[in-house]
Amino acid sequence: MKKSKMLQNAVALMLTLSMVLSSGAFSIKANAEPADATTTLKTAFDSFNASGLVFIEYSLTGEGELIANEKVELDRAHNVKNILSQDVESLEWNASYTDIKEKITYYQDDDKKWYKYPTDAEELEGLGKTLSDNGVETQIVEGATYKYDGEEVVAVTNAHTDELKEVDCYRYLAEVPVVIKDDGEYEEGEEDADEEDEDGEDPDEEEEKEIINIYYYIDKATGRWVHADTKDGLVIDVDITYPSATGEDAVVLEIPKEAVDKAVLEDGYVTPTSSNELVGYKVVYKGKSAYLVVTNVKNSKKVTIKKSVKILGKTYPVKEIGASALANKSKIQTVVVNADITKIDKKAFYNSKKIKTITINSKKLKTIGKNAFDTNSKKLTIKLKGNKKYKTKVKKLITKSRAKKAVKKTKLTVK
Hints:
Number of domains: 2
CATH topology of the largest domain: outer membrane lipoprotein receptor (LolB), chain A
Shape: elongated
Number of helices: 5
Strand content: 35-45%
Oligomer: single chain
CATH architecture of the largest domain: Clam
Order of helices and strands: HHEEEEEEEEEEEEHEEEEEEEEEEEHHE
């Protein structure tokens, strides 16, 4: 699994710098007295979002220990975004390179092998969801309060060169309301806590609102946003520099040719689900050959599992339905498996009480895990393809996999 992604998933409380390309213009005059805080910050954010070349370095520290440290280099002119993530134990830096136009990210593992994976839309031009939930944003947050908080000279690090530069800044304090969920994540804004999730269940009622203080620093000479930090609890430190894209000192970012030539699809990559694609598939290697395993599905009335899926121009066969892949879904009624699956893992359809029909068109099914078809529905029909001998074999596998309680609760018909 890619290093930067693993690091991001391990950190529950991190900040969003989601950068959407927009046409912002500078209007702050050099050394002018600060205008209205909200107006000043919006102008600075717009300029940041419109910058063709920008470097960001950020760190997250909790109780005096480093939790995350990353450097991001974004070159929109050449459609490249580089991320350097530091391993908090070894302190080694791991690089990944994203082709914004082609939506592909490349990285090298510890064995110097190159891998690639399709990049989520939210990660293409911005930092993706990394430091988001603490409120450090490139936009004005509804419900937050912004105010001028004095002046300060701050040392800003260039993420590309590691050079330090002292910048005379106006400092602004943003008091950002957040909702603390029971899983420890922060959620911004005033979203309705009574809304149902995709499985039809109400979120945990034990949610607390809290104000997070974020300090933004605007260069007095240029009006550009150059730094942000928090001072209490989880300490976040963000430095932003705007290198030259022209002239002798121009910086041009490129993806290593070796990465483009040698990278193979990432082992363990899970395809995202969306309104167009209800099923998520994980890439698994057996030797040098890769195949797909169904890992999750969206909660829809009908789910169809494809025979194969095309990823980055190459087609991969679907061979397995993973553990709990379609479990605990409140809406699914019909499932059609068009893939030549060989395995249905444990609890694959477990406790999805509305499932009435599962059609399995594979004639290669060999393994069925425990409780795979224990849907707890009143009536379930499994339709099989193949000759009589094959169907008899699969029926035995299904019977063996079922729990006694499930047998009593659900009338199961295998055709």
